[in-house]
Amino acid sequence: MVARRAQRGHRAVRLVLFNTLDYARFLAFVFVVSWVLARRRWALLLPWFLLAGYSLSLPATLTNGGITVVAGLLSLRLCHQKHTGETPPLPAALAAVALNFIALGWLSYRHAARDPLGLGLTALKLPLPHGTVPSIVGALVGFALLLLLVRARKIRLIFILLASYVFYAHWDWRFLPLIFFSSSIDWLLGHAIYKEQDPGKKKRWLVLTAAVNLGVLGVFKYFNFGIDTARALLESLGMHPSPIALRIALPVGISFFTFESMSYVIDVYRGDIKPQKSYLEYLAFVAFFPHLVAGPIVRPRDLLPQLANQPRWSALEGSEGLFLIGVGLVKKVCIGDYLALNLVDRVFDAPMHYSSLECYAGVLGYAVQIYCDFSGYTDMAIGSALLLGVRFPLNFDSPYKAPDIQDFWRRWHISLSTWLRDYLYIPLGGNRKGEARTYINLMLTMLLGGLWHGAAWTFVVWGGLHGGALAVHRAWHSSPVQKAFVNAARERHAYWVWEDGESKKRLPGKGW
Questions:
Q1: Which of 34, 79, 226, 370 has the fewest Cβ atoms nearer than 10 Å?
Q2: Inter-residue contact 19 to 333 (CB < 8 Å)
Q3: Are 163 and 28 in contact (CB under 8 A)?
Q4: Per-residue pLDDT tens over the stretch 129-161
């Protein structure tokens, strides 16, 4: 029950982010501006399409139509200026964005009495007064930043990084320094490890990296769990310790961005990759909003080169991204949420009120719900990234079709299972140090994997069950009994095929 509550709480947070109209607007805004800043000629018309779409939702007046038409003509003029090749100059790109979004803001303020900057401050939940003066100050600050960005070579990447931080701040802006400083420390330590020649000092830098990341994760996610466990243990021994609790919210996505940042430093230590020279690109790698909250866990060697290079628009990838977002929404809203509301939550909240058959249906429904919930969210994340010219790895591959538990973990949350394999199971020794050590490594990996999912003993038990199942599966497949059983089954199957063929000979008119 604790595990389900934790999962339901996690799901409630995600509803604010991916399954709402607010996220659709945010993604549309980022899509338009990022491709304009990529300086593609066709992209200069994208801001106008947003303006035109909003204008169509307003009353049909001469003023609304006139503003939209004038903005469209000016956008066409900017798009068809004589540029060198297919890349328009940066001032033209900025002018296209500014022109249409100023018109959009004016229409919004005129018809809905909404101050766009004030709404932005409200959405970020910043502790600032909202009125005319703060809006003017915000506009001046934004204009000053724009002037600085004009001189920047990585203006599109800067925009995506800022958009990712805004996306994260929508949940709670106070945790922005956490992800920023965590990323910065790992970037610096990665360079320190690469420059160090002494293997002993390299290892000390690596230990420091692990201590910092796991320390942050431990304080925010596992401190209260550890204190509660210790207090329960002391109380069972007849002691009565005073209650201690850390009253702090769990930062959204901390398990994901911590693992991604750690994998970068470990890869540098192993020599698999070189340290990232660009501080900006590394910050964007950690904070890139499609995978920031719930994965997939993207490896630095897969994502960093895509962020460093100028993207190329592909209509095929764009349509694939929209399709995945649609599929993810159907999985999450139409199947996952429907099952949760109409079957799973009712059965799990009051199981004594239902028959054994209904309880079993609730358990099966929960299996479908959690798959549609998680894989649907991942589909939306992959689709969002594709719209921005970035491809994430596959994270789910029909896991419930797996014939055994080992194949299941090759299909379920693939980015996490491969992370645990490469950064925990193999460093522990994998299957290289004998059968007994292999089983211990499997159990430790899955126990820690279960604890990674949530700070509760139910998650630890869940990890232990999966670790035990993997160990039993491995023991069975490596035993001589299993091999004899398989050989006998193969011989029996061959006999059935032969007997079936022989029997067909006796059927009238069914000869070979």
A1: 226
A2: yes
A3: no
A4: 444 445 545 555 555 555 555 555 578 888 899
C-alpha closest to that of 25 among 60, 53, 67, 55: 53
DSSP collapsed to 3 states, 266-291: HHHHHCCCCCCCCHHHHHHHHHCHHH
The catalytically annotated residue of 240, 453, 477, 493 is: 453
- pLDDT value for 500: 43
CA distance 475 to 397: 25
**From its phi and psi, is residue 448 left (phi > 0), alpha (psi between -120 and 50) or beta?**
alpha
Instruction: Flag the least confident range among 4-13, 35-44, 359-368, 373-382.
Output: 4-13
Unique residue bearing structure tokens 């001046």: 140
Residue written as token pair 């004594």: 352
Distance CA 241, CA 235 (A): 7
Instruction: Say if residues 1 and 347 touch (Cβ distance below 8 Å).
Output: no
Compute the distance between CA of residue 286 and CA of residue 179 in angstroms, rounded to an integer: 8
| CA dihedral over 305, 306, 311, 312, signed as positive or negative | positive
pLDDT tier, 507 (very low <50, low <70, confident <90, very high otherwise): very low
Point out the least confidently predicted range of 61-75, 138-152, 153-167, 439-453: 138-152
The Cα–Cα gap between 462 and 474 comes to: 18
Please confirm, yes or no, whether 453 is among the known catalytic residues.
Answer: yes
To 5 degrees, how large is the angle CA 462–CA 466–CA 472? 145
Six-digit token pair at 61? 């007046």
Tokens of 504: 């067909």
Residue type, 59: P
Place of tokens 């068809």: 80
* 282-316 pLDDT tens trace: 999 999 999 998 879 999 999 999 998 888 888 88
Distance CA 113, CA 201 (A): 61
Tokens of 311: 């993207």
